[in-house]
Structure formats: structure tokens, C-alpha cells
Amino acid sequence: MKHEPQHLFEQASPAVMADKELMISLSNVQKWYGDYHALRDINFDVYKGERIVVCGPSGSGKSTMIRCINRLEEHHKGQILVEGIELNDNLENLEQVRCEVGMVFQHFNLFPHMSVLENLILAPTIVRKMPVKEATELAMMYLERVHMVAKAHSYPGQLSGGQQQRIAIARALCMKPRIMLFDEPTSALDPEMVKEVLEVMVELANDGMTMVCVTHEMGFAKTVADRVVFMDQGQIIEENNPEDFFAHPQHERTRDFLSQVLSH
Ligand SMILES: Nc1ncnc2c1ncn2[C@@H]1O[C@H](COP(=O)(O)OP(=O)(O)O)[C@@H](O)[C@H]1O
Ligand SMILES: [Mg+2]
Fold first, then answer.
1. Residue nearest to atom 27 of ligand 1 (CA)
2. Could you please report the per-residue DSSP string of 216-234?
3. Which pLDDT does position 262 carry in this prediction?
4. Which of the two residues, 239 and 2, has the higher pLDDT score?
5. Alpha-carbon gap, residue 182 to 106, rounded angstroms
6. Can you give the residue ranges of the ABC transporter domain (predicted)?
7. 187 C-alpha vs ligand 1 centroid, how far in Å?
8. Ligand 2 center to residue 106 CA distance, Å?
9. Which ligand is nearest to the CA of 64?
10. Would you state the pLDDT for residue 1?
11. Which residues have CB less than 5 Å away from ligand 2 (the ion)?
């Protein structure tokens, strides 16, 4: 494995599951792209404070599944509930869910013509109708949290990939989400920048954020995840706590995948 920053994660503590509040629930979810059956009967629950890592080969449906959780993609069959709100054609439901769910992508998607601070206050002022002063204070607080206060007035193009991704995380947090989804947040980064982004994610995990992370950073999965979910060909093949997932993968496909990602 390229990055094995185990020491990074020593402070990660198990999620508190006492209240077992169901945050995300997918039941019998199916999705097609044209004729292509991209999600095949997905059943998947996430409780408050859980940290889930989703892994699997390219094209297995990982992005499709997490994008369905805030309806960036529509599912065709089955049911998706986010904090008990059903995702369907009801736009009010969608708006409510989008306010609760923050998302971080592989490519940071910051607006290049806006400063870091302007990027951060955009959604809170427009979507949440927050006064600029309050949104700015909030933005500075989250910049502090991702250790980027000094770059508040820089433009994205002046920042490294790792710094831009930390800004993208701060931007998502400015909407005060109760759930954070990450879709391969470190896979477009140079290796030396992966650590700084993972550190920010570990800090978030330690704060009790409910997180679903698609990532191939198996060091992160081993030490931070409460559960690892393995997908292949549009299905969840197996899921388990990280110790058992890595020590005793049940399926041939999981073993093949792990031998590939853990061997380099
Ligand atoms: N917008 C789309 N239109 C058609 N096919 C798509 C689209 N998005 C994804 N797919 C296909 O669906 C499958 C799953 O894709 P994706 O969820 O992106 O996989 P992963 O994130 O695991 O790499 C792939 O075969 C991909 O080519
Ligand atoms: Mg993907």
C-alpha cells in the first residue's frame, strides 16, 4: 500500500451508537442507466455517528449508490430514506435532504473566480438565506477546522490539490450537514497531499459526524471505519467491521480486490 499512515488514526475512537438513530436507509434499491443495471437490490442502513467505508472495483456502482443518497442520481425501484425523509419526486423532501447531506467529490469543484471565503459563504447565504456576516463567521470557523484560515482570501488556483480539497470539505460543512458523503476525496491528489485530507476526515469522524466514504485508502478504512462495505457489479457483496473484513473476507471477489489494493 502506498500510504500507511496508521499513526495518523490513533486518536480515532469508536462511534457512539447508543441511540441508534437511523440516518440513511436504502431498501431494495435498483437503478439503470439505459439498459445497464447499475444498482442491483441495494440494502444498506447507516446509523447516527457511523463511519462507513465503501470500496470495490471501478465501475461497481459506488458513486452511483452514494449519489442516490442526495439524489444527484435517481433510483428507479426501492426506497431511500434520509433521516426518515423519502427521496422521490417531492421537491420539498429533496430540499430538506440536501440541507442535511454534505458531499465532497474527487474533483473539488470550487468556483475558480471566487476567493476561498466567497466559495464558502455562497450556499449558506443563497440557500440558507444566512446574513453575510454570520456566514463569514461560520466560514472562518470551518476554515480553522481544516487548518486553512490563512488562505481565506486566496483563489482556488493558488492552492495545492490537498488544500483545495480541505476547502471543499469546509464548504460542505458550512451548510451544517448531519451526514457527509465522500466520493474518492483523495484519489485525484498527489500522494504527499493525501495525508492532510485524511487527517481532516479523521477529525470529523472524531467529532461524531455520520460519514459514508468511498475510498481505497485502506489504512483509513482499518482504523476509522465502523463498517466496510464491498461492492461489485452493482451489488453489495459483503460488509463487515474492518477487523473481520480485512482478516477474513468471505467472498472470492473481495479477496481478489483486497489483494490488488493492498499489494501496492
Ligand atoms: N451517467 C451515466 N450514464 C451511463 N452509465 C453510467 C453513468 N454513470 C455511471 N455509469 C455506469 O454505471 C456503472 C457504475 O458506475 P459508478 O457508480 O460510477 O462506479 P464506481 O464509482 O464504482 O466506479 C459503470 O459501469 C458506469 O460506466
Ligand atoms: Mg466512482
1. 59
2. --HHHHHHH-SEEEEEETT
3. 83
4. 239
5. 8
6. 24-258
7. 17
8. 9
9. 1
10. 43
11. 63
- Three-state SS at 129: coil
Atom of ligand 1 nearest to the CA of 73: 1
Q: Specify the 3-state DSSP secondary structure of 48.
A: coil
Q: How far is the CA of 60 from the centre of ligand 1 (A)?
A: 7
Residue type, 52: I
Closest-CA residue to 47 (of 82, 74, 79)? 82
How far is the CA of 119 from the CAs of 29, 101, 146, 163, in angstroms?
34, 18, 15, 14
The C-alpha cell that represents 221 in the structure block: 478504512
Quickly tell me which residue has 467505508 as its cell. 53
Which tens digit of pLDDT belongs to each residue from 134-161?
999 999 999 999 999 999 999 999 999 9
Average pLDDT over residues 64-86: 97
**Which of 35, 42, 54, 63 most suits a substitution to test ligand 1, by most atoms within 8 Å of the C-beta?**
63
Per DSSP, the three-state class of 144 is helix
CB-defined site of ligand 1, < 6 Å = 33, 36, 38, 56, 58-64
Contact (Cβ atoms closer than 8 angstroms) between residue 229 and residue 236: yes
Residue with cell 472524531: 206
SS3 (DSSP) at 100: helix
Three-state SS for 95? Answer: helix
Q: Which ligand 1 atom minimizes the distance to the CA of 56?
A: 22
What mean pLDDT is predicted for residues 103-108? 94
